[in-house]
Design goal:
By secondary structure, this protein is α/β, with parallel strands linked by helices. The chain folds into 3 domains: about 140 residues, no CATH class; about 55 residues, no CATH class; about 375 residues, TIM Barrel, CATH 3.20.20.140. The protein is about 45% helix and about 10% strand.
């Protein structure tokens, strides 16, 4: 059973946490965790108590705990081939005891590194591309150097080499007019054409909810797994509890709160000192403004990626052009599209956006069930099945058409990219194959689109309806097709091609559902989870992560793309969701509950974890717009981005992603956060 421990009760840290506090030393430069944002370079030269606001003993304890948490996250990211900030990793290495006992040569190298950073500072300073330099008179009155020529004059400088090494991009390679090419050598390329690695003929078995890979069937029968890295459930439980102990620690909470307040104050100082400076820099860059810089909507759901007027026009046009097309079955009898609308007493003339009723309103606030019902046009689930599903009687034909229209709009805007979520429900093992066939056969593709697969946490509903017998079957339906096609890509060519454009997994559902948020080591394993109780959020997230670890190692050995974990996390519910996201996820969506947990908020800042925030979505579900913490997070240096989430429910205009600049103005965020 799930453990009965709760976040309330004794607030003293556990012995494990206290022991670590006592033995971990103070890092060399606490302000250097992580590398400061550009506005944090105005830090004062104060030191000691006046610098951090806490006694040195508490500072040592707090810094040791924070470093421990960062090292734990680094380990989980490395295990799953997810990204961890290189700069933070380097600073963690510098703060370790071994690095402080390093030789003079290492210290000289560090000083050399700092000198190189100073060159970068000089390279990026105002005089390089300022309007003053651009407009400076020259000996030839008819010649005025362009910004590009000024920047190209520094292409071989040490600073440019540092930037090139750090980012992999040279300024000479950047073309302000460059588009992603859709043609090569004058010939259109097939987007679904990809390499087909040979079959490895591996075997796999499920052991306590995790896949084990074996080189042969004989090895599988003798339990000799391959030398892959496997995630440990007990280790995860211990690490999660260690992080929760930190969240409950009083002195650490006070320290993190003061540091967050300090970051907010430094941003205000930056605005006062450098606002005009930044405006001059921005005006000095030719051609570029908000509308022609590349923007990526990293959190948008495919079934609601169009606005309500677009959906209305599509439904009307489809009804006029295909009234006699059979679209569904009713009591074993085929129904045409015209018959479906006659059954709800509707026609093309009657329909309007008000009758369509897909826009969220105040009635959806704290009512996730009513919000989900907004996906049903005219309140009819049958219309959702016909127009917004990939697995239906006509194999998602209409949904593919409207998705291609959305993609055409995205491509027309030239500088906009999206990463739409599309669902795998895990009700049966054929879902992956059907989804891939839908995408490949209907050519649902764009260079401006990469897919994120979302997995709704609906096991309890499937179990209640006797679609599944245990949570292990849920995992089988999610991962078995992926392991099979990764071992032998020729076993399902459509799925192999589709996975080329899948970048991440997401876990979605209502986080405010009642649950016991904590785990213990002897919790029931997936094969034993046979009742109708829904597993907690952390349980879902761990088993998605653990099997993604093995899958990524397999796919990497095959030369195939790997995946990351980017769940909905912290929109509501207990803070343990955010703790699990800190350990297991590369990025998260929403993160609203960070505002209530200073320790986690400061850790997300230190680790520089991206948070895709959607204030308009939150305004209709969980948090009023004026209370949204996005501006505060941005000011403190957290890596926040603006995203649309569900344009169908929240947007009115055709170019729904253009609302982001307006949103950035009202929240006080720079447009570059989008």
């Amino acid at each position: 059973m799930i453990g009965k421990q709760h976040l309330t009760g004794d607030r003293s840290p556990s012995p494990r946490f206290r022991n670590h506090q006592e033995r971990r030393p103070l890092p060399m430069e606490l302000d250097d965790l992580p590398p400061s944002s550009f506005y944090q370079r105005q830090a004062s030269a104060a030191s000691g108590l006046h610098r951090v606001g806490v006694p040195i003993e508490e500072l040592n304890q707090a810094s040791g705990a924070l470093i421990q948490a960062l090292e734990i996250r680094k380990r989980y990211m490395a295990l799953s081939y997810q990204s961890f900030s290189h700069d933070v990793s380097q600073l963690l290495a510098e703060s370790s005891p071994s690095s402080r006992r390093s030789s003079m040569d290492a210290e000289d190298a560090m000083r050399s590194h700092r000198a190189t950073e100073a060159e970068v500072e000089q390279y990026l300073s105002l005089h390089v591309v300022s309007s003053e330099v651009v407009n400076k008179p020259h000996s030839n009155p008819h010649h005025r150097p362009s910004v590009s020529s000024l920047m190209k004059s520094n292409l071989n400088s040490p600073a440019e080499q540092v930037l090139s090494k750090a980012t992999g991009i040279r300024l000479s390679d950047v073309d302000s007019q460059l588009d992603i090419p859709s043609k090569v050598a004058g010939k259109a390329t097939d987007p679904w054409d990809c390499a087909m690695p040979p079959s490895r003929h591996y075997a796999y078995r499920w052991v306590d909810g995790q896949v084990r890979l074996y080189r042969t069937e004989a090895d599988a029968n003798n339990d000799r797994p391959m030398a892959y890295n496997y995630a440990s459930f007990q280790q995860f439980v211990d690490d999660l509890h260690s992080l929760i102990d930190m969240m409950r620690d009083g002195p650490l909470t006070s320290f993190c709160y003061r540091r967050l307040q300090f970051l907010s104050a430094k941003f205000k100082m930056h605005v006062l000192l450098n606002e005009l400076h930044e405006q001059a820099l921005q005006k000095a860059v030719p051609h570029r403004d908000f509308y022609n810089i590349k923007k990526v909507d990293v959190h948008i759901h495919a079934a609601s990626s169009m606005n309500q007027k677009h959906l209305l026009r599509f439904i009307k046009r489809t009804l006029r052009e295909n009234p006699d097309k059979v679209v569904t079955m009713d009591k074993g009898q085929p129904m045409t599209l015209k018959a479906v609308f006659e059954s709800i007493q509707m026609n093309t003339y009657d329909l309007n956006v008000d009758i369509l009723d897909v826009h969220a309103d105040r009635n959806t606030f704290h009512r996730f069930d009513k919000f989900n019902a907004k996906y049903n046009p005219v309140g009819e689930s049958r219309l959702r099945e016909v127009f917004l599903k990939t697995d239906n009687y006509q194999n998602g034909f209409f949904f593919s058409k409207i998705m291609k229209e959305v993609m055409a709009d995205i491509e027309e805007s030239k500088y906009t990219y999206i990463e739409p979520r599309i669902s795998i429900y895990c009700k049966n093992k054929m879902e992956w194959s059907k989804l891939a066939t839908w995408a490949v056969k209907n050519n649902v593709y764009s260079e401006h689109v990469r897919w994120v697969v979302q997995v709704p946490r609906l096991y309890d509903i499937y179990r209640e309806n006797k679609l599944l017998k245990s949570f292990q079957e849920f995992l089988n339906n999610l991962f078995n097709p992926l392991f099979e096609v990764s071992i032998d890509p020729s076993s399902n060519t459509d799925l192999h091609k589709f996975l080329k454009y899948v970048i991440a997994f997401d876990s979605v559902d209502d986080e405010s559902k009642p649950e016991n948020p904590l785990l213990v080591g002897d919790v029931r394993r997936p094969a034993e989870w046979t009742n109708e109780e829904n597993p907690p959020y952390v349980y879902y997230l761990y088993y998605m992560y653990a099997n993604m670890v093995v899958l990524n190692q397999l796919r990497r050995s095959q030369g195939l793309n790997t995946f990351v974990l980017r769940p909905h996390c912290g929109e509501s519910g207990p803070s343990t969701h955010l703790a699990a996201g800190f350990l297991l996820a590369e990025n998260i969506s929403h993160g609203l509950m960070l505002r209530k947990v200073p320790v986690l908020q400061y850790l997300y800042y230190l680790a520089q974890i991206f948070i895709a925030m959607s204030p308009l979505s939150n305004n209709s579900l969980f948090l009023n717009y004026h209370l949204n913490p996005l501006p505060e997070f941005f000011a403190r240096g957290l890596r926040v981005t603006l995203s649309t989430d569900d344009p169908l429910q929240f947007h009115y205009t055709k170019v729904n992603r253009s609302s982001s600049p307006c949103l950035s103005v009202t929240t006080g965020c720079s447009s570059t956060t989008t």
